[in-house]
Write a structure and sequence with these properties.
4 helices; single chain; 7 strands; about 190 residues; 5-stranded antiparallel β-sheet; Peptide Deformylase; two-stranded parallel sheet; alpha+beta
Length: about 190
């Protein structure tokens, strides 16, 4: 089932999400709906707060980026990408060089900005079967994971912008929070 994406301005996007247990009601159905919603919205990642769920869950598919790339001059160490579910994730370490990439967010449509993130991330998490993992990711996969992880920590990619740039975008952000952004996917306004 395709779920509506929570628009910028909703308080749930600023809350630290709560851990979930293996007996979480209809978790398989929720995860399947998140995949469906993410793909229908042309996203590469989706966190539970973006669908109005205050739980530590996100999905990501970096393989889409590599499948849809037009530029072949840049080489990423994580090609051809991965598709994964992350439950109760905890970042243990970031490392490598910091690099800039133009990011966007389904909850903040029509705004893309260059954001600097580390090239590797090590995290502990559980998969959809609640098997515990500790794993290091790099490249585009690490970037998507860090972006989605920020969502379960109550952070947004625009938080990394310099104050002046944020001030310049404030009008567009206000429009999004008032429902004035046109998108081709379901979006919901919450306070």
């Amino acid at each position: 089932m395709i779920l509506p994406i929570v628009a910028y301005g909703a308080t749930i996007l600023r809350k630290i999400s709560l851990p979930i247990a293996a007996d979480h009601a209809q978790l398989d159905t929720l995860i399947e709906s998140m995949w469906e919603t993410m793909y229908e919205s042309n996203g590469v990642g989706l966190a539970a707060p973006q669908i109005n769920k205050n739980i530590r869950l996100f999905v990501m598919d970096s393989a889409q980026i590599f499948a849809n790339r037009e530029e072949e001059d840049e080489v990423y160490p994580d090609a051809p990408g991965i598709k994964k579910v992350f439950i109760n994730a905890k970042v243990l370490e970031t490392g490598g060089k910091e690099w800039m990439y133009n990011e966007g967010c389904l909850s903040i449509p029509k705004i893309r900005e260059d954001i600097t993130r580390f090239e590797t991330v090590t995290l502990s998490y559980m998969d959809e079967k609640f098997v515990q993992h500790t794993e290091t990711f790099n490249g585009m996969t690490a970037r998507i994971i860090l972006h989605e992880y920020d969502h379960i920590e109550g952070k947004l990619f625009i938080d990394y912008l310099k104050p002046l740039r944020r001030k310049i975008l404030q009008g567009k952000l206000n429009d999004i929070s008032k429902g004035k952004a046109k998108v081709d996917y379901k979006m919901i306004l919450l306070k």
